[in-house]
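Weekly structure sync, notes
Attendees: PL, DS, HV (note-taker this week)

Item 1: Sugar ABC transporter ATP-binding protein
DS walked through the input record. Source organism listed as Dictyobacter kobayashii. Sequence as pasted into the shared doc:
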Amino acid sequence: MIPSKPLLTMEHISKSFPGVVALADANLSVLPGEVHALVGQNGAGKSTLIKILTGAYAREGGDIIFNGQEVNFQAPQQAQAHGISTIYQEINLVPLRSVSENVFMGKEPRNRLGLLDWRKMHAETRKLLERLSISIDVAQPLLNYNIAIQQMVAIARALSFDSRLVIMDEPTSSLNEGEVETLFSIIRQLKAEHVAVIFVGHRLDELYAICDRVTIMRDGRTIEVCAMNELSRVELVAKMLGKELTDVRQHGQTSFSASAHHADERVLLEARELTRDRVLQGASVAVHAGEIVGLAGLLGSGRSEVARALFGADPTDSGQLFVSDRQVHFRTPADAIQARLGFCPEDRKADGIIPYLSVRENLTLALLPTLARYGIVAQKRQQEIVDTFIRRLDIKTAGPDQPIRELSGGNQQKVLLARWLCMNPQLLILDEPTRGIDVGAKAEIQALIEELAEKGLGVLMISSELEELIEGSDRIVVLRDGQTVASLPRSEFSQDVLMAAMAQDSKPVVSGRQDEVQHGEA
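Item 1 (cont.): predicted structure, written out as tokens:
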């Protein structure tokens, strides 16, 4: 029986960054021996809350009580010393060191002479890995092993601290099905030993299989806390997205028109059954000329992974890709650009803009090979192009030589769009094109996307906003756990249908019939 007195209580936690409120009155309570799910879309505040708990960030308000004592950790090492271990999605170990050194880093056993006791360290590491059903040479450098093994080593390190609370951030992202079940066995073992686990994840099957309760976050706030078995999958999705199950779509919430676009029969791009490890497990999508196809799904469903695979940024294990009815294999983004594809990534600051370069340099980055001869850029031609697109997209800038980092988010996004439009593409892949920008810029970009489609450009648009997908798309393809589970024509769009397709554990099909999605056959 799980005790009723919390092991961890975080109340009224607040945190701001310049121009952004990351947390506002966020709460989290975890019981001893409980597996507690922490869920929410990008920007919900999950990572910030965890970093405040572990001392990576300083909180601006609120209280934290752990194991009966009020705490205010100043660094992750301090939290670790008090019994809180964190396993991050991005493995933060040292590849050139041995497996044993990584497990015992900072607390290496020593003999009576003060020297490293390698025999004991190797033996203890092997014992910890045996709990995870892993048998490897622990004296080998960590980089000799694949990502799944490295993830298990990170878990073994957490177990070595005899922690009271273990935080797992997307722990299954690099594991196959057998390894996931092994991990779940370890979690159940920890639970039996009254060790609590905070499980940050997005795969609904896994959440419902292993978690006792769930905390749902949205926009830096705790929205709801309840037992997993008291919340249906569709209800969970609705709360994460901020929707009511009875919502009826209202027109006019975006700057897209209410009418369909005039797509022709020409298929610009088609992907069939793309697979990649556990990230993509049969993703299919097609885009016609003059068509806007929305790509829907929860965080972790494989939306961005599909976009990156289509653009040659990530390799695939299997599947087929066709551009204008010709089968292609993009080894690099340069191959996709050659085929007249453009891609605006989700994180424009990390993967899109080069902050210390100018607007001019950022805008013409992809075009440089055609503007340069013998390594010298034709500056007059470059300037003409930049002036044209600054004017055409109404980019608010002090001038082409202004550093792009000084522009607003909406104007940075316009520069990225201009980067591809100056290449005269036939298809644009837009991953969250209006995220994090003001209402005015958002309306301008939505209107521009629609204008491009009217002129015959194909658009694949990823968005977490259901209204944007419903009002802006001619078709919506729904992904769940890396797999295409529905392809819906405009006549069948509704928030309820989309949420049901995102949430339900069911046999995937790509039918357009609404009744199939609603009754779990899609």
